[in-house]
Amino acid sequence: MDASARRDTESRGAGIQSLEKGLRVLTTIQHAGRPMRLNDIAAAAGMTPSMAHGYLVSLVRTGFVVQDRLSGLYDLGDAALQLGLASLSRTDFLGLARTAISELAAVLHETVTLAVWNGDAPVVVDKIEGRSDSVYEIKAGSLVRLWPTATGRVFMANLPQSEWEHHLRTMMRQGGEHEASIERFVADLTDVREKGYAATLPATVPDFSAIAVPVFDHRTHLKAVITVLGRQDGFDIAPSALPLTAALRAAKALSLRLGASVS
Fold this sequence. Notes:
Blueprint: H1 3-12, H2 17-32, H3 38-45, H4 49-61, E1 65-67, E2 74-76, H5 78-89, H6 93-108, E3 111-117, E4 122-128, H7 150-158, H8 161-174, H9 179-195, E5 198-200, E6 208-216, E7 222-231, H10 242-257
Helix pairs in contact: 2-3, 2-4, 3-4, 6-10, 7-9
């Protein structure tokens, strides 16, 4: 073993391999998102069935795994649920979110905002200025229009229609839109939901474009929306471009920290 490998081993400590293997069995069931057969657990965890069974026996005894008596399938137990709930109860969402949008702004050098639903409309609760341009029109505490903003469209695509329909119809009528336009706009939200983001070119802020992505909680409910804004003439909103791929990664990582199961 060379010096660098030895230092790496020492920094990590010897650890307890049996514990690590047991946790690998537990996380295998977690990631599956469904009850599993012994052979499937063993294959996914890289173990023989007999080895996996030994760990499952201990996990069942401690309540982290349960086995259905009729089907023989294994699933997460109450102890695993309680551990997850305890972790979620200690999660500082705004602190985690600020770290996430700060890192995203540093990568993209663009302004990034975080918005939540206040019962009637999206409201900006945090904002990190980009190094290239500042978006002075948006401040913490600002309400965001449902239509036609990228932020608003992501909220509408992922919230119950009953929560926003009245506000959208009123807003669009004030803008001179007809009922048919409203129905067509609502139908377009399916595309936003399926793609997992919304983009506007330009955004409602003059000379800027925007990309908005959803953040979900452990119940797979919409928790917030992250929006990146950049100058229209130099901000690439293409699906393969860095602004969108980086924003989606940030939203996925934050969702996972909140206990969401996201692909």
